[in-house]
Amino acid sequence: MDYYIITGGSRGLGEAIITELLDKDKTIFYLSRTNNLTLEGFARGKHASIYYEECDLSEVSQLKAKIKSIFSKIDLLKAKKITLINNAGIVDPIKNVGDAIEEELSLNVKLNLLAPMIMSEYFINETKEFAGEAVIVNITSGAANRPIAGWSAYCSTKAGLNMFTNTIGLEQGERENKVMAIAFSPGIMDTEMQGVIRAAEKKDFSSIDQFREYHQKGMLRAPSFVANILVKLLSSSLENGRVYDIKEFV
């Protein structure tokens, strides 16, 4: 049996990843603020096991209990592979430095960086005695590699997530790759986040016209397409600590 723990699984890329993974030989746990009953219907049709854990991932103090609750439902003796996919993220605040407020910045850092760090911390701790494969996937962004006006928080947290992934890979490599950690950059997708971006004001986001053009010209990838590539990647030989970009596969 393979187990998957997916944050932000109720919509967007998280929902698409779960849909791609649904299979009778897999058990999926997804954490989000809202449940997705459609996913549960799909799971029943495929005789797959899926469990919803209500969780606001920005409330980082509750993450340890959530991870422990999930692992209490995993039979480590029968499990072949356990994968954590840190998918939840937020682009807000879309504002120039000096215009954002403390609460907006704090939420961005908690959801984009601190939550994946804490989830990974407890995941590695819980799998120390696990004899099978343990994998961490951090969903990142091309924004980690270049500054974008109005996205200082998003660019910075995704850059931090990449370095965090690199460091796990280095550490685990020194321990004979007990846990495999990668980051995956999915490119621009047709999700609610893109809707938030297009709704920004030009004074806050100077690249707004470019992103509106992506949508108008049908240049946004479908989450299902991205999910299919990621799932295929996870079945291949991975390089620990590496940041993968979808451009390598399309």
TrEMBL record:
PROSITE patterns: ADH_SHORT. It comes from the Bacteria. Belongs to the short-chain dehydrogenases/reductases (SDR) family. The keyword NADP applies. It comes from Metabacillus rhizosphaerae. Its EC number is 1.1.1.320. This is (S)-benzoin forming benzil reductase. It is an enzyme of class 1 (oxidoreductase). SUPFAM superfamilies: NAD(P)-binding Rossmann-fold domains. GO terms for molecular function: oxidoreductase activity. It is found in: Cytoplasm. Its main location: cytoplasm. The keyword Acetylation does not apply. InterPro entries: Biopterin_syn/organic_redct, NAD(P)-bd_dom_sf, Sc_DH/Rdtase_CS, SDR_fam. Keywords: Cytoplasm, NADP, Oxidoreductase.
